[in-house]
Amino acid sequence: MSRWVKVANVSEFEALPADSPSLAVDAEGYDVVVFRLEDGWGALDDTCSHEFSKLSDGEVWDGRVYCEKHGSSFDCRSGAVRGLPATDDVTSYDVDQRGEELWIALPDWA
Length: 110
Ligand code: FES
Known about the structure:
Layout: E1 2-9, E2 22-27, E3 30-37, E4 40-45, E5 59-61, E6 64-66, E7 73-75, E8 81-83, E9 92-93, E10 95-98, E11 101-107
Antiparallel strand pairs: 1-11, 2-3, 3-4, 4-9, 5-6, 6-7, 7-8, 10-11
The structure holds FE2/S2 (inorganic) cluster.
């Protein structure tokens, strides 16, 4: 089970640079990063699983976010590790666009 939480408006992404289409948001106290992708949206915990840098400070290319600290990369939708040195995936969240609003699904444990 999960519950849906509104985290952002689509218009907040309009001023972001093309190489960093991500937005750090607060989801009921959880740090989450939302990505604007070519074909939709992604959302992950905003903490790299390697040494806990903010993924929202990284660059996004081809559906991956690259951590600015040591270069690990993660799939922006699934949170799966795509590049070392990180070896653990990052928690991902489903995203639903409802008109101008973006909502994410927080699990029950959140
Ligand atoms: S803290 Fe992200 S790769 Fe090291």
